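To the team - NAP complex, inputs and output below.
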Amino acid sequence: MILDKFSLKGKAGIVTGASRGIGKGIAEGLAQAGANLAICSRGLPALQKTAEELRRYGTDVIAINADVSVKAEVENLVNRTLERFGRIDFLFNNAGITHRAPSEDFPEGWWDEVIRVNLKSVFLCSQAVARVMIKQGGGKIINTSSLIAVTGGKSIPAYAASKGGVAQLTKALANDWAKYRINVNAIGPGYIITDLTAPLIEDKQRYQELSARIPMGRWGKPDDLAGAAVFLASQASDYVTGQTIFVDGGWLSA
Ligand SMILES: NC(=O)c1ccc[n+]([C@@H]2O[C@H](COP(=O)([O-])OP(=O)(O)OC[C@H]3O[C@@H](n4cnc5c(N)ncnc54)[C@H](OP(=O)(O)O)[C@@H]3O)[C@@H](O)[C@H]2O)c1
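Output:
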């Protein structure tokens, strides 16, 4: 039956950057759908607190301290997930950061950091997990892109480049790994209320400008992403690959 195809009961996967914000919202949806989860971030106390909250949905959740832009830490994340669950059915590459400054003043160090955390990490995590998925006969990889992959934004040159890169990498990996029954897709959030967008929300004028442009008339919340996340992690999306699903309140259509 169709609703059974959305169930993640008995499945296990990784969500990166899940201590707060969109990653936490996605992890809540995946846990409610029945998935066992390994969640990661750099700050362990907040991550452990989130893991505890997620366990209330009745599945097994482990908190693993990892910087996803460091290969050895990614390998540890993957190995510990395998030790605990014996398989990895899905990987959610969600961890991300931004820095804001006019492009003419944007520091090189910020450029390198944003590209490393937002783009290189997606490749490192996907490659490590795909090697497991190839052996086990398939899986789902879901990346977090952004509407900024399409629009470019303002004063976020490295972020825009990283998210455009994630959208292209999603297609490249989808092409390479379709033969292994690995689906690679992305979610493209619009403007979502999290720590990452706090500076935009605090800037009253910018907040008004952005809010007025959203057809649905409101910013998104982290749990607005959960439905698309469950779809892309589940059997319901078996014939979908290389796509970005935008969850943006209509921004890109306006
Ligand atoms: N908010 C939006 O409007 C929006 C829109 C489009 C796309 N996105 C994307 O959605 C994703 C989540 O963003 P968010 O708004 O939820 O941000 P957030 O609230 O700042 O959360 C970011 C998460 O990523 C973790 N993280 C950051 N760097 C990491 C690293 N190197 N290794 C492991 N974990 C790391 C953070 O924990 P630690 O700091 O403790 O590591 C935190 O759990 C990002 O990829 C972002 O680009 C956000």
